[in-house]
Amino acid sequence: MKTLQNIDFSQKKALIRVDFNVPLNDAFEVTDATRIQAAKETIDTIIAKGGSVILMSHLGRPKGVEAQYSLQHIVSKVEEVLERKINFVNDCIGDKVEQAAKNLAAGDVLLLENLRFYKEEEAGDVAFAQKLANLADVYVNDAFGTAHRAHASTTIIAQFFSDKCFGALLAKEIESIDKVLKNSEKPVLGILGGSKVSSKITVLENILDKVDHLIIGGGMTFTFVKALGGSVGDSICEDDKQELALEILAKAKEKGVQIHIPVDVIAANAFSNTAATQVMDVTKITDGWQGLDAGPKSLENFKKVVLESKTILWNGPLGVFEMESFANGTIQLGNFIAESTTNGCFSLVGGGDSVAAVKQFGFEHKVSYVSTGGGAMLEMLEGKTLPGIDAILK
Ligand code: AMP
After folding, report:
1. pLDDT (tens place) for every residue of the chain, 394 residues total
2. Residue to substitute in 290, 320, 361, 381 for testing ligand 1 pocket (most ligand atoms within 8 angstroms of CB)
3. Structural contact between residues 51 and 13, judged by C-beta atoms closer than 8 angstroms
4. What is the DSSP string of 30-53?
5. Are 231 and 286 spatial neighbours (Cβ–Cβ below 8 Å)?
6. Which of 132, 112, 107 is nearest to 11 (CA)?
7. Exposed e or buried b for every residue in 285-305, given b needs 16+ CB within 10 A?
8. How far, in Å, is the centroid of ligand 1 from the Cα of 262?
9. Ligand 1 pocket by C-beta < 6 Å: which residues?
10. Beta sheet of 109-111, edge-to-edge order
11. Ligand 1 center to 315 CA (angstroms)
């Protein structure tokens, strides 16, 4: 792995692709600075090694230059987090930017304007990437959230540098995922929840080669249960994916992967937090009722396998956690994983909504690692090579 440690930054200008795509309120103030804080280690390390820093990022989805998406809005927050003054230029290429980059002395930080003000960024335009590249001596990619996109600043740019590496955050993401998918301690448990089989098929298929146990929960449960002949009532179910569900079960058997599906559910008579509820056998859900969370017997079963695992990968909630009445399964599962982590298991949470659930219920610091890139993480779990990672390794 090419990391910050492998590069001499002394008197060099480092161009860092960060993910400062932070939420802003109506007054254009940053409401959650997590992503800025996450980049601090990389910036501090480069400065400590005698370099200067040029930060580039996207913010939102502007169509051309739109003031509301200007990175000017985040300057004071970046200064607060980095505990140093920074310089901002209201463009990311051109004379002004080149001059500002030229004037950088060791320890200086320059923030460029939103990369997506140029359509060339997302188009992966080579000439645009080269203009960015001309600003610096070293390229550092620390934006995991966009590592699955072959954009100019995330991928195309890397070809113009002989000195390039992963930032601390991206390196940690890669290490954590490798710890689960490549160098894992057995038994390995995958937990896939969420709403639909269709959005997780490739993950399901790829993960079967990596895990010893697989818990399938959330809305996906019912496609499997129905395919096996059970009655799922009004539960979410993809009828056209039943065949696929059976194929996945057959493949799991062939590979010696033990599948764990909920045996009971909290069923509700409407998709509502205030609906009437009762515990039902997952194979005998009556019409008018839908399974919205894992039931008590299922949780007991899951607890056993979670506590016996040495490596855990968790993607997707066990129920409709956004509604208090159906959050218990996801909360309990988080508690089991936290307990297993305390006992020495390596636990990685990520992809899509799991991170929201983990943060909402305060498990963030009780698991080994929470991945920051929803889509990028899913693609890694699908076994894909991410262009942003590949570009550094080439
Ligand atoms: P995903 O983005 O695929 O991980 O799906 C997350 C969504 O799945 C969340 O918004 C949950 O509310 C939803 N979900 C989980 N369990 C169920 C269920 N039993 N029925 C309907 N939706 C569910």
Report:
1. 899 999 999 999 999 999 999 999 999 999 999 899 999 999 999 999 999 999 999 999 999 999 999 999 999 999 999 999 999 999 999 999 999 999 999 999 999 999 999 999 999 999 999 999 999 999 999 999 999 999 999 999 999 999 999 999 999 999 999 999 998 999 999 999 989 888 888 899 999 999 999 999 999 999 999 999 999 999 999 999 999 999 999 999 999 999 999 999 999 999 999 999 999 999 999 999 999 999 999 999 999 999 999 999 999 999 999 999 999 999 999 999 999 999 999 999 987 667 778 888 888 889 999 987 888 988 999 999 999 999 999 8
2. 320
3. yes
4. BS--HHHHHHHHHHHHHHHTT-EE
5. yes
6. 107
7. beeebbbbbbbeebbebbbeb
8. 15
9. 194-196, 199, 218-219, 236, 291-292, 316-317, 319-320, 322, 352-353
10. 87-88, 109-111, 52-56, 13-17, 138-141, 164-166
11. 11
Give the active site residues: 35, 196, 352, 375
Distance of CA 321 to the CA centre of its chain: 18
- Ligand 1 midpoint to CA 318 (Å): 7
Which amino acid belongs to residue 273? N
- Please tell me the residue having the least CA distance from ligand 1 atom 18: 219
Cα three-residue angle 153-392-142, rounded to 5 degrees: 60
